[in-house]
Amino acid sequence: MKWIFATWLLLAADVSLARDANGVYIPKGDIDCETFILQYDLDYELKRQALQVRTEFIRIESWINGYLTAVNKVAQNGKRDIAQGKNMEFITEHISKYCRKNRSSSLASAMEGLLIELLASPVNN
């Protein structure tokens, strides 16, 4: 019984960390659009110069892939690829455009905008 209570307590604590002081959900690992733009532009410049990709941007791409994986998991019981036919370059360019227009926003908000666009595309209908 103590083990069950301890497990529940750990899970409850973990969930509470995903909320701000006002109880508003904050996606774990989310970053602001200004940070995304900075990292995106640095990564783009390094690729243009045929230099190594920056580790920080790989972390951001991994977060994006995790987000899409979570969406795919719940979309039609895991039988749907929400980003079908789209590569990471397309996705990060879309996010970059969103963030440049919405600099005070976040990566998670940009992803929500991307999902709306992907759901409306003919490939996903």
Task: Give a verbal description of the structure.
By secondary structure, this protein is an all-alpha fold. It has one domain (22-124). The chain has 5 helices and no strands. The N and C termini lie far apart (48 Å). Mean pLDDT is 78; it is low at 1-17.
Brief summary:
The protein has 125 residues and is mainly alpha-helical. The chain has helices at residues 2-16, 33-48, 55-74, 88-101, 107-120. The protein contains five helices and no strands.
Question: Termini distance?
Answer: 48 Å
Number of strands: 0
The SSE order reads HHHHH
Compute the number of helices: 5
Average pLDDT reading: 78
Strand content: under 5%
Low-confidence stretches: 1-17
Structural class: mainly alpha
Query: What number of structural domains do the residues give?
Result: 1
Q: What's the story with the biggest beta sheet?
A: none
Pick out its properties.
single chain; 125 residues; mainly alpha; 63% helix
List the helices and strands and how they pair.
Elements (H helix, E strand, L loop, with lengths): L1 H15 L16 H16 L6 H20 L13 H14 L5 H14 L5
Helix pairs in contact: 2-4, 4-5
